[in-house]
Amino acid sequence: MGRVLPRAFYERETEIVAREMLGTVLECETDVGLASGIIVETEAYLGEHDLACHAAAGRTARTEALYGPPGTSYVYFIYGMYWCFNAVTRTEGSPSAVLVLDFVPDSGTALMHKRRPGIRNKVDLTNGPGKLCTALGIIGSMSAKSLQRKPLVIREGETIPDENVEVTTRIGITRSADWPLRWLVKGNRFVSKGKVSG
Description:
The chain has 198 residues and is an alpha+beta fold. The protein has one domain (7-185): 3-methyladenine DNA Glycosylase, Chain A (Roll). Helices cover 16% and strands 29% of the residues. It contains five helices and nine strands; from the N terminus they run ααβββββαααββββ. Strands 1, 2, 3, 4, 5, 6, 7, 8 and 9 form a nine-stranded antiparallel sheet that branches. A hairpin with a 3-residue loop joins β3 and β4 (82-88). The protein is globular.
């Protein structure tokens, strides 16, 4: 396994972190086991001026973790049923983060299937932010935690060359929707279906 990414990795511009998280390994260890996956799609959210970022509503109980130190987790609930995982970036008090949209299962696949019973297709297991959190066992109590120690860590992985990376506008949002802040590994079958650049 690669080394755990240090806090300094996240203490940079969010766009750089989002790009360089491609190919890294998101790992979650709970009392029932360890599971991980190789990140292949990310989106950057840039702070209070970014209307698609939760910080646009200001500092609230929900967004408090987003204002935390770089290299910590921001986990939030959507649609009344899914958790989503983000890595907090820049500096403490600068509410920005990278949302992990998809990964390729790496270890603990049997555990992932147990958490998502009835899913036969490997792609459908983790090809979405809510799906991957369910598969890994990521829950709200894991928010505002250091990403340098369990339960959640991100490890060094494969370096993805620029020619294999595509940058597009973010998907599934209506505000600040034209900002090119989505990074993905070209041709990877786990990447979300949605608007892509021409």
